[in-house]
Amino acid sequence: MEAPDIAETYDIDEGLISRTLELRRWLHRNPELSGEEYQTTSLIADTLRRLGYEVQLAAGTGVVAVLRRGIGRTLGIRADIDALPIVEANQLPHQSQIAGRMHACGHDGHMAILLGAAEWLASATFSGTLVLIFQPAEEIATGAKTMLDAGMLDDFDFDAFVGLHNWPSLPVGQIALHKTASMASADRFTIRLKGTPYHPAMLDRARSTLGAASSIVLKIQEDFARTTDEGIVISVSEFEADGQRSLTPSTVDLAGTVRALTVAGRESALAYLKDMTNDVCDRYRIASDLTISRACPACINSPELEGLVRKAAVKAAGIDNVRDDIPPTMGADDFGYFAQRWPCSYIWLGNGNPDRSLHSASYDFNDDAIPVGVGLWVAIAELVLGAILPN
């Protein structure tokens, strides 16, 4: 199903798309890990200053760029900027030039799309405030919170705050929207079980850490190893014991994640983990230490933005290319921190390459998605701020 001609709809010339594509490929060649995005930040800041944006650097490698055009609403658009510690398997003219690092999640494309939209919007007339947020350290789930804790966005009362993520299984040119959550919360847990070690011949005297650990794993497997109707999944990914062939372990360590699509589901799952661990350890007469590290809240989309974002998506991709039948993912993104504070929408952009999944060594952002992505941000700016190019 053919998308609208974005160049014609918004007078986006081929030169802008070509420059955006070159930016994307430069960013792909020069990936930087979470919290180390110094060269990336320098390119972003220099580009935006040349376009006339007020640029603020803070919170390590975060960038906030602002255009103020009179009185009106405030729009925030966010792109993540960090790469991953992965050796790229692709043989491409623009493949990573940094050993052991690559943009395997498409953040190079996210940045380029927002920079392309920034160029168009710098020439536009509108009423209100446009804020572009280039966020570091999404891959380690700290960047959004760091920017918020540093007060980088305290001066803005956003009427709409949006972000996107490319989606390999979604055909290029399509956009997927979700009425509620698009991505789950993610919290990490560790459980240390402490018992009494004994010779295997005297297990009747032992306080079995292995038995308790196995019971915990099997109980989680039975109740939450697959996504429930409530949108919860709990997984144990580490199991480590200090025992020997002739001595039962005194300690066993378990670790894993808790994921949920709702705030209530998140709290319910964490409470379940605490209560179940206590029950099992009481039965085995052993001690336990449960530690929960909250990582990301869910990306929950605001109902008040649903109509506006859908209208913008139709303008950018065409009505037949806007999908609402794609289920949310149990993967996480720290965009959820922004969604806790302002009316937000987190949008999926088709990357059209299901055989090259996110975080795989063969992944590459599909440049054919760039015009639709730029068009989406321009369309949202038009609807929120009244952005148009002067005649």
From TrEMBL:
Residues that bind Mn(2+): 105, 107, 139, 165, 359
Any Pfam family matching the protein: Peptidase_M20
UniProt name for this protein: Amidohydrolase
Coiled-coil blocks: none
Signal sequence range: none
Keywords: Hydrolase, Manganese, Metal-binding
NCBIfam families xref list: amidohydrolases (TIGR01891)
Organism: Rhizobium leguminosarum bv. trifolii WSM597
Cofactor binding, note field: The Mn(2+) ion enhances activity.
Keyword Acetylation on entry: no
Cofactor(s) listed in the protein's UniProt record: Mn(2+)
GO MF terms, alphabetically ordered: hydrolase activity; metal ion binding
